[in-house]
Amino acid sequence: MTAEHTGAAPPPGSVGDRAIRSTRRTRRWGSWYVAEHRFLSLRAYAQTVTVTAIGNPIIYLYAMGVGLATLVDANLGTDAVGGVSYLAFVAPALLCSAAIAVASDEFTYPIMIGFKWNPVFFAMNAAPIQPGQIINGIVIAVFVRIFVTCGIFYAFMLLFGAVPSATGFLAVFVAVLTGLGFGVLLMAYTATLTEDTGQLAMVMRFVILPMTLFSGTFFPLAVLPVWLQWIGWISPLWHGTELARVFAYGLSEPLWLSVLHVLYLAVLLAVGWAWARRITARRLNK
Amino acid sequence: MPEPVIVAQNLVKKYQDFAAVDGISFEVAPGESFGLLGPNGAGKSTTMRLVGAVSTRTGGDLRVLGLDPNRYGPEIRSRLGVVPQADNLDTELRVRENLLVYGRYFGLPRAQVARRTDELLAFAQLEDKAKSKVDALSGGMKRRLTIARALINDPSILLLDEPTTGLDPQARHILWDRLFRLKEQGTTLLLTTHYMDEAEQLCDRLVVIDNGVIMAEGAPAQLIRTYSSREVLEVRFGSDLNADVAAQIAGMGDRIEVLPDRILIYSENGESELVRIVDAGLTPITSLVRRSSLEDVFLRLTGRTLIE
Lengths: 286, 308
Ligand SMILES: Nc1ncnc2c1ncn2[C@@H]1O[C@H](COP(=O)(O)OP(=O)(O)OP(=O)(O)O)[C@@H](O)[C@H]1O
Ligand SMILES: [Mg+2]
Prior knowledge:
The complex is a heterodimer. Chain A is 75% helix and 0% strand. By secondary structure, chain A is an all-alpha fold. Chain B is an alpha/beta fold. Chain B has two domains: 6-219, P-loop containing nucleotide triphosphate hydrolases (Rossmann fold), CATH 3.40.50; 229-291, Alpha-Beta Plaits. Chain B has helices at residues 44-51, 69-78, 95-104, 110-123, 139-150, 169-184, 196-202, 220-227, 242-249, 270-279, 294-302, and strands at residues 6-15, 18-28, 33-37, 59-64, 80-83, 157-161, 188-193, 205-210, 213-218, 231-236, 255-258, 263-267, 286-291. In chain B, a hairpin with a 2-residue loop joins strand 8 (205-210) and strand 9. The chains are: A mainly alpha, B alpha/beta. At the A-B interface, helix 1, helix 2 and helix 6 of A face helix 2 and helix 3 of B. Chain B: This is ATP-binding cassette domain-containing protein.
């Protein structure tokens, strides 16, 4: 057997050798090419994206932070939610929820589409793009969308006077981490689905909605009976929200707990990302 | 002889215990146009995926452009153009954008991709449709766009999985014309098809596959010479009578094939067989003498017709 037949490098100047040279760019930049593609696709629903990014903060901050807050502050005073106005209390939670909402959009149906309904992932993989790069590219694109969405949300928080602390802008990064940490897990799960027989709707109803309600979002976790508080401890939204509160209005919690929030979200991100890459590699290799 | 661009040796692909490709060997020379022929489920698409370096072989050996797909998948794919059996154009993008985005995947600079895109839109006769949505294209247009997309990187090898299935005769001829031009430019073609005329038109050489194994290999004319007679007489007696009649005319021609709706008599001279039948006192409802085709080769080898 010649050297070629052992899978070793082909002789210089051969077609194989030229192929290796010409693939270097894609090996390095493939993830970015996929992200580019995602941005172009995003234009198809650019209106929805824009309206959500601008409309959501106005509606939620007004309804919860102004409407509901008037009631809460008038009846319970600031003691109810740790010594700040209800608006200041709820705004960081809404910010993190906005990140979760974008993640829930971007990491579900577009994944079903790519694998099944309009299998563009297979087309990418037939070009020199590797399965892991497809996942990376999607994460990059969603990162940008979440970041912009949260940036706009934060601007409205400032406008509503919902951020007492100067370190408040850090809450944006926390929210992005929250959205991605939860989102990549959701993406990995969606990638395992060969058919959507309502699983995604179930996830929305029985995972995302309860998580939004019971993660110390609208009331402190301590209000819940102990036997329900575990929902908060495993919820990425709770970890994100608490940390965002530390930055937005100086919620007092031990340092180790703040570190734990970051670690927890980082671990979710790492695990979900790796898992999604693995499933994708397996699924594209038919 | 130049180094072959595809070498498969005893190639095997199993799904659990089922071998979709069960030890096939073939070589394709640069610039050659090579066909995989076979009925549904024969293993054609599976073979295409193995060569396309997107599916890992279970056994045997495979080199594409001298490279092992297990180690150099992206590198091999950078030199391939792939037209899959089912179109997977991005329906969220416009026609032109589909080519632009795809070109980037090969690491090509934007300006070069844009130039190539315009050439290919002309080549595929889709210039007027550049800004259309993909879903607004007809089946034949989508197929042409898929082929255009496969050519964006100026591939050394073009893999075409049933490129013309589902197209009307005119659309097929347009596609054949495009493929001929590529062949003239020296592109290697590996294609699967159910159409014998397509195989005869496009393939320099082909293999007939059934149940994941190769039944025969050669140039179309050579296969016909080897596995069939020069002419075929087709006679119909009505489905009830075919079997009875077959018994009576046994021994006529070189070989007889009884199909549900007709009897095929293979012979060097179809007309003289027809005379013998009539002399025997039988009157077919219809009769037809034609040249042997790949369809007959296929029937001989697999006992089945190609399109079921
Ligand atoms: N991913 C898979 N998992 C399990 N079985 C598979 C898979 N892909 C193909 N097969 C099986 O392998 C066999 C060959 O399939 P393949 O798609 O290669 O056939 P084909 O020759 O292309 O047929 P057709 O003319 O219908 O396109 C079939 O029996 C098919 O069911
Ligand atoms: Mg097939």
